[in-house]
Amino acid sequence: LGGIFATPGTARAYANPADSYNYAPANYLMVPQKRWTLGGYGEYEVTDGINLYGEVNFINNQVVNQLAATPIGQQVNVNLLNPQICGGPNAYISATTCAALTTIAANQLAARNAAIAAGRTAPFGSVAAGTGTVPAISAGIVRLTANYRVTQIANRLNTDDRNSFRVLGGTRGKITDDLNYDLYYMYSRTKNSQTQIGNVSRSAFAANVANGTCNIFGPDQLSDACIEAVSIGAQNQETSTLQVASGSISGTAFTSPWATSAVGFAIGAEWRKMKADFNPDTLLSSGDVVGFNAGDPTSGSYDVKEIFGEVRLPIIQDSFINRLELNGAARYSDYSLAAVGGVWTYAVGAELAPIRDITFRGQYQRAVRAPNVGELFGGQSVGFPPATDPCALASAATNPTVRALCIATGVPAPAVGTAALQPNAQIEGTFGGNPNLQEEVGDTYTVGVVLRPSFIPRLNIAVDYYDIKVDNAIAAAGGGVAGILNLCYNVIQDAASPVCQAINRDPSGIISGNQFVVEANNANLASLRAKGVDFQVDYTQPLNFGLLGANSRLSFFFLGSYTEENSFTPVVGVDEVVQCAGRFGLNCDDPTPRYKWSTRLSWMDGPLTTSLRWRHQNAVRDDDDDSDFIVERLPSYDVFDLAFSVTPDDRLTLNLGVNNLFDKRPPIIGDNQEQANTYPGTFDVLGREYFISANVRF
Description:
Blueprint: E1 3-7, E2 10-13, E3 33-47, E4 50-67, E5 71-79, H1 95-117, E6 141-149, E7 156-174, E8 179-201, H2 202-210, H3 224-230, E9 231-255, E10 262-280, H4 282-286, E11 289-290, E12 298-317, E13 323-335, E14 342-355, E15 358-369, H5 373-377, E16 381-383, H6 395-398, H7 400-408, E17 428-431, E18 440-451, E19 459-476, H8 481-492, H9 498-501, E20 503-505, E21 516-519, E22 522-543, E23 552-569, E24 578-579, E25 583-585, E26 589-592, E27 595-605, E28 608-617, E29 620-622, E30 633-634, E31 637-649, E32 652-659, E33 689-696
Parallel strand pairs: 17-21, 25-29
Antiparallel strand pairs: 1-2, 3-4, 4-7, 5-6, 7-8, 8-9, 8-11, 9-10, 10-12, 12-13, 13-14, 14-15, 15-18, 16-17, 18-19, 19-22, 20-21, 22-23, 23-24, 23-27, 25-26, 27-28, 28-31, 29-30, 31-32, 32-33
């Protein structure tokens, strides 16, 4: 079990991780991008109180992404009676390996015949028709699982060409001295054309391995005829539109006896319609493509009608206390989606300044997010996220509960606890829409204080505590592939549960293609929670000297945050909460440090501004306490940037500088990483980077 043909034609035991394929060097960490934008705005006063206005925008965005050569992971039949494969003078397989596979083939055939004689479902395909692209075995045919990188075919290249335009027209003006109106209609459309090369046809691969055209028994053994037979390109197209019609009236009303400013308010109504289509070619939609993710066609739309209002109520200003102000807002939304229907959102808040130097503030907000078109109507698509199969860990063989569960969910008993059970760090998952999704519901509480001490002019300090909870969260069921595997084998531990039923293994070869697929369609099963404190400090100090002017200024700015909690509950009601504050890894993904900040020191001297920025993230540790990875802790990470801005006159500004001034390298991690043994979304993978730009105003 788990043999590798490191030497063409001769198998030996698979060694993990020494024999693993390193896909990282070929993958783009930062994708190249070209963007063109064109826009215009115009306004015309027809008469007093009627101002017509319009906006037009067009954007073309081109992105190219490259991934390593296509990984094949599927079952194939090998004809050992074909002398080109086994027994001939230049056979693909050595005599020793041929004898071993012949014994396996005989055992497989005997098992199938015994099952048929006993009236059970025959393993390795049915006699009459076979199953899918892998026909039933017969005498001299051995069923194998091929894990093969087609490195003789070019790396996978995906090109996205996205065109988007937006038009808006409206009218606004005064109704009275205290009332204003604004009416507009907006239409936007985005079309994305995607072209893929480097893909492989799953069915063609199986057929050409079976007939001997493709030699998979060694690295880089594919013939030109094989490459031509299995190589395919693919393309798809995505189109989305958004229409908005909105109208509002805003203005001021009465004034509180203790205030100097009047009550401000706004009321209005809005209609929106969202529509999206995803049209893959027949190869992608059939699931026959191996390389880039396949997907079914998607099409859907919905609309929403809303009424809204908000109010700002100054109660006390410059009286026995400095200021007391209340605010509130409410919105009713009626969705055409039956599972959502009519929903309310609202917010209330207050600000209290006993004296001018200090302001206390607090806010509560109820928010909802309706599912988008893709989440609702998206067809089945395939992805390969990083995940760990608990049944492939050595501990699974010694844990009776986990071992029994692995066998119950389709793992052959001899394979439990063997690394060869999971030869790839990525596990195939299927993802798709759910038309019965409901809205997400979020509650946010914030309290804070703003200090502007009169005895220290130009100093501003703001501290805010936040507590955010999202219920009914829309996410891949169970938190995705990694979450489903963890919940099934380590938490729920019931093969009959819906979570474990989402894991589809193929121990006997009945199913063609990959042996291991996890279904993770969208569901309203999760909840999110985030709590923490945000800090902001800014201070400016005038200086009585300057190099380019008589005077200059020194400015300090600090923006930081402390994360008390950042948690994710994949399935509400199941005692499994993923805590991500101060963590990183396969469950939490990108690092979430407890403390992080960005601070900038700027010197403004005449037309020249010089600034030094410091970006800091605290240390984090792996999110899986039950597994030992190569790297369990990432140290704190600090990056410095230097920038210059020169404004010789009002029409021209020049900017230049260096990001990552000291060429700080990203931490190198291991299996518990996003890509290339690190997290490119968090850490700088490019190193020292120079930039220059100019802004010209006519």
